[in-house]
Design goal:
203 residues
């Protein structure tokens, strides 16, 4: 699993902020993908009926989920679809509730999960954490989800004690961080804010 943490700092008052993660997995034969949602684990699960027998997950770790969506790419993402281009209005709507949470047929699907709304004063910040998971079987994926949540609750800088769960760090550490920062201007939400991303990785 990989834990991705986003820290968002506002430079002006912000209200009604949602933070989410979107994944277009394209597993095996992408047009044979399917989606389900495990609400008790805040976990979206994707798999394919052809080309790859594994299972993949998108999990919210740090907050109660405000929304999950199984996204039908042929409808919302493809340029030729009935609601083409995956518009910002669609994303914002999906962040705010639980509409379609399970695929109704094998097809080209993606999924997204979110937390919020957050209200931030100038200089205020919020940290939202997600996990990207993979497992050979559904039960294996659930094990990974449990370990990722335990890891987050214990603190991502805590020692990794589970054998076989820390095979991908640099020497002297049980995780590495890939960090970056970007400032985005959202006039409708009160102005610019700074988004810092860090990706502590545990495999």
């Amino acid at each position: 699993y990989i834990i991705v943490e986003a820290k968002i700092t506002a430079t002006a008052p912000v209200s009604g902020l949602f933070v989410g993660l979107y994944a277009d997995w394209d597993i095996g034969t992408a047009t044979q993908n399917q989606v389900s949602y495990e609400p008790s684990r805040q976990l979206g699960v994707m798999s394919s009926l052809a080309g790859d027998p594994s299972f993949y997950g998108l999990q919210l770790l740090s907050h109660p989920a405000s929304g999950f969506r199984a996204v039908d790419n042929a409808v919302f993402v493809y340029p030729s679809g009935p609601d083409p281009g995956f518009e910002d209005a669609d994303k914002f709507q999906f962040f705010q509730g639980f509409g379609t949470v399970q695929s109704d047929r094998p097809a080209d699907w993606s999924d997204m999960i979110s937390a919020g709304p957050f209200n931030l004063p100038p200089g205020g910040s919020v940290e939202v954490a997600f996990a990207l998971l993979a497992g050979a079987t559904p039960s294996d994926l659930l094990i990974q989800a449990g370990q990722a949540l335990s890891r987050w609750n214990a603190g991502i800088d805590s020692p990794c004690t589970q054998a076989g769960q820390c095979r991908f760090p640099p020497a002297g550490s049980d995780h590495f961080e890939s960090t970056g920062q970007v400032t985005i201007d959202l006039p409708s939400l009160g102005g610019p804010m700074t988004v810092a991303l860090s990706g502590p990785v545990m495999v």
